[in-house]
Amino acid sequence: MNKFKLGLSLLLLVTFVSCTKKKNYEEKVLVRNVSAKVKGLDPVNAGDTYSSTEIARVYEGLLEYHYLKRPYQLQPNLAEAMPEVSEDGLTYTFKIKKGVKFHDNKCFPNGKGRELKAEDFIYSIKRMADTKNISTGWWLLDGKIVGLNAWSDKYKGKDANYSDSVEGLTAIDDHTLQFKLTQKYPQFLYSLAMVYTFAVPKEAVDMYGEEFLNNPVGTGPFMTETYRQTNKIVYEKNPNYRDVFYPSEGSEEDKKLGLLEPAGKKVPFVDKIIVNILTESSTSFLAFESGNLDFSEIPKDNFDQVVVPGKGLATDYAAKGIVLDISPDLDVTYMAFNTEDPLFKNNVKLRRAMSLAYDNAKNNELFYNNQGLEAQTIIPPGIGGYDPKFKSTYGQYDLAKAKALLAEAGYPDGKGLPEINYETLSKTSSRQAAEFFQKSMSDIGITIKVNTNTWPQLTHKTKKKTAQMFGMAWLGDYPDGENFLQLLYGPNASPGPNGSNYNNEEFNKEFDVAKNMQPGPKRAAIYSKLAQKVSDEVPLILGVHRTSYVLKHAWLKNYKFSTFNHGNSKFYDVDMDLKEKTIKSGILNKTVDKKTAKAD
Amino acid sequence: MNGNLNYILRRLLYLVPVLLGVCFLIFILFNVVAPDPVHMLLGKHPSQDQIIQLREQLGLNKSLFFQYVDIVRSAFTFDFGRSWSTKQDISTMFMNGAIPSLTLTLPAFTIATFTSIFFAVIVAYFRGKGIDLFIRISCIAMMSISSLVYILVFQYFLAFKWGLFEISGYEYGFPNFLYYVSLPILIWVILSLGPDIRFYRTLILDEIYQDYVRTARAKGLSERVILFKHVLRNAMIPIVTYTVVQLPFLLLGSLLLESFFSIPGLGDMTINALNASDFPVLKAMSIFSAVAYIFFTLMQDIIYTIVDPRIKLQ
Predict the structure, then answer these.
(1) Nearest of B309, B290, B283 to residue B34 by alpha carbon
(2) Which residues of A touch B95 (CB under 8 A)?
(3) What's the pLDDT at A540?
(4) In chain A, at which end, N or C, are there fewer CB atoms within 10 A of the end residue's CB?
């Protein structure tokens, strides 16, 4: 028996020794997480927000969004100034900043990064058009630049010849770049702030070949050695980064939040960025709570514990110095009808009845903590074409009217109507939302069958037009109504982004005109009219425009939420003394009594 | 000895039909039944041209027969190409993933096996007494709790509240990885104790009622000698069977533990591949595990001859 006891206690001793690593507070390090695997660091394939955020630490483009100003506003980044646009609106001439250097890398002679030239942008844009690369960003430029599609077609399935010139892409000299467009398209500028068009040096692509995506060489504020797909990416500050300064313009609100304090200071502020890839939200939230991450989103399961409805951050979190940042996001959620499905085709009354029976306010309360804005059209607030006064006729919950319309459609009390298939994702929140929709419809006698899918299955069904109805959300690619209205543009039907396959000739025609107009009140009015008209046709049952919730520790400085956050990490700063003090005090791991805690 | 070699060669030859069969199953699952991955990979704005181009690049426009041949070729050359979703070289992904997985699963498995056998011998020794009942009830209680509960509760209390372990993450190289794998190992051991102790106890008890044990008792040997010298040795055959069968799965890592503790192992890789329709990675994992399985059952046969000299390979 004694031996047994000895064995047992030895075992316990071995397993229970303290197994945590000592932390280092000397270097200024920004620690954050990304909730999905990053697909390598090649700009032409920056298909998702996670990858583009990572790529934008290393690479840069001609333009970027102003860090503080809202509504979002473009400003030059690698360009010297905003471009000169010809009178016919077709030619854009950019001056490029002089003396910008690529990161030192062995792909350059002597390993010294060379100067960025206009030719680099032409090369990078041709890479998007190179069919071998199958760039997920090609839609941005498809048919927009003179001669680019011809170049792309010429080398379809072959090795492209990059020295073959394209009429619409000219380097007038090393620091002057000219684009010629096939038609007026002011939104073209937004594509130059998107990661796909960021400058890539040919030397690196030639040297690393297929491994280029793991060997990023850009001009950006941070650099990383060979990227390994593991659970962590570590970036070091680029020691040769050019002079870039923190913005000095912002709103009163920004000033109050201290976001203007570092105005005019040279960026980046941190020496290192550690990005942890944490796919489980419960794990990443614990990591944030313990101070291992500087900021984090709030997982749905922890929401009620962190945010008190109508009051904001729960006091026990506030007592730990944690700050809650609530900002509107540029998106819209919806449930789409496949308008090519025989049941919904030419049956606007049925679609309207279903929209009227959907209690969107309850949806907002149940799934978005009442923080979403019930969508009246597809265009979210903050961009031209959004009309705060507009109320959609069929977006208001009205059971009596819904029943009447359903009868008019030929299905009194749902009689004679076949079961409708609704496709959703298998995660809990999607399933609950689908069940809520199911319940709403049963109130007017419509039977919904909820099918749960993996993301690949759902994409397959929508792109192949075999889904009858499905739930989806659209996050803006750029802050322009066009990016939302194109979701209902006929030629964009599946496999394009128009999953409802809505195709209205009049809409298509007006959209074609509006998308080529200069931004301004005139165009906004047309956007607005288009969005409102299509709301009446109900190709989608609209949900909400969502709000982003971000929790950050007090030691993280200058953080401001942005839908287009790529490239923003250079502005973040970390107060390492405060971080050390807070973590060492142990307050983060303590349970603070909700009643006695006082927020400061 | 010649016979042994013959046997081993013959078993290795079996690999060929088995692999062909595995390839066929994979082919049916991924190339025939599974949803078309092209749309998933192309993002939200694909053009018709890109769909055609990608199908060609992935070899999906070939006839089904040639798609099958492609799988067979990769199974026998072990060249799986690149991941569809992350564009990474699959062999590199394997190398990067195998180390973290093994640093978690090997120690966990070893500790779990030895601890379970140790406890099993004790309960077998005290069979029918209070301690036997207590351990058996504890085993059932431990097995009744979902693994997810252990993960969440241990992560919250042991790592977050009490700071005994790291919450998540991984670092390559000794001894750094130890900080990150110790909590997952602890959970693995606790998860295996329940079923393993009960299983090994049954194995040992099966032996205890054999005739030779009665003879040994009649000879006047002490219960301890009987248990450790005779019974345990005879129970080795089923124990080896049980443990070796589990070895190939150690290479595959642990899906849940790796995912929750953010350990970049093969289990984590598999989950991500599943979520992204990354067929080449899934095919590689399936073929790899089939080969590993065959290899380890062969090892098992060889170990049999060592633990029981009466067994000959033929």
Answers:
(1) B283
(2) none
(3) 96
(4) C
Q: Judge whether B294 lies within some domain.
A: yes
What domain range is B173 assigned to?
Answer: 96-273
Residues B237 and B124 in one domain: yes
Q: What is the pTM of this model?
A: 0.89
Contact B225, B155 (CB under 8 A): no
Q: Do B168 and A464 touch (CB under 8 A)?
A: no
> Is residue B288, in this structure, part of any structural domain at all?
yes
Of the residues B33, B42, B186, the best mutation for testing chain A's interface (the one with the most A CB atoms within 10 Å of its CB) is B42
Residues of chain A with C-beta less than 8 angstroms from the C-beta of B185: 15
Report CB contact under 8 Å: B170, A134.
no
Q: Which residues of chain B have pLDDT under 50?
A: none
* Residues B142 and B288 placed together within one structural domain of the fold: no
* pLDDT of res. B223: 85
- Residues B127, B58 share a domain: no
Instruction: Using CA coordinates, name the residue in chain A closest to B190.
Output: A15
CA pair distance B293, B298, nearest whole angstrom: 9
Taken in order of first residue, the domains within chain A and their CATH numbers are: 24-40+229-327+549-600 (3.40.190.10), 42-217 (3.90.76.10), 331-545 (3.10.105.10)
Across the interface, whether the CB atoms of A21 and B54 are under 8 A apart is answered no
Q: Is A496 on the interface with B (CB under 8 A)?
A: yes
The DSSP call for residue A242 is: -
Task: Give me the DSSP letters along B122-165.
Answer: HHHHTTTSHHHHHHHHHHHHHHTS-HHHHHHHHIIIIIIIS-SB
In this predicted complex, what is the ipTM? Answer: 0.87
pLDDT at position A598 is 47
Count of structural domains, chain B: 2
Q: What is the per-residue pLDDT for A77? A: 97
- Residues 38-67 of chain A whose Cβ lies under 8 A from any Cβ of chain B: 39-40, 42, 45, 47-48
pLDDT lower than 70: segments of chain A: 1-19, 593-600
Chain A residue at shortest CA distance from B98:
A230
Do residues B127 and B247 both lie within one domain?
Answer: yes
In a domain, residue B82? The reply is: no
Q: Which of residues 134-153 of A touch B (CB under 8 A)?
A: 134, 136, 138-139, 142
Distance in angstroms (rounded) separating the CA atoms of residues B80 and A40: 18
Claim to verify: residue B58 and residue B165 sit in the same structural domain: no
Backbone angles phi, psi at A97, to 5 degrees: -60, 140
pLDDT of residue B48: 85
Give A544's contacts (C-beta < 8 A, 6+ positions apart): A332, A333, A360, A363, A364, A368, A372, A373, A374, A375
How many CB atoms within 10 Å of residue B12?
12
Q: Of B39, B40, B44, B174, which to mutate for an interface test with A (greatest number of A Cβ within 10 Å)? A: B44
Mark yes or no for CB contact A20/B163 under 8 Å: yes
CA distance B304 to B302: 5
| CATH code of the domain in which B177 resides | 1.10.3720.10
SS3 of residue A230 by DSSP? coil
- Same-domain status, B263 and B215: yes
**Within this chain, do residues B198 and B229 fall inside the same structural domain, yes or no?**
yes
pLDDT at A198: 97
Q: Look at residue B91 and tell me if it is in a domain.
A: no
Q: Are residues B174 and B261 in the same domain?
A: yes
Among A4, A20, A280, the residue with its CB nearest the CB of B260 is A280
Phi first, then psi, for residue A83 (nearest 5°) are -70, 160
In A244-388, where does DSSP find H-type helix?
A: 252-256, 281-289, 303-306, 315-318, 348-356, 360-368
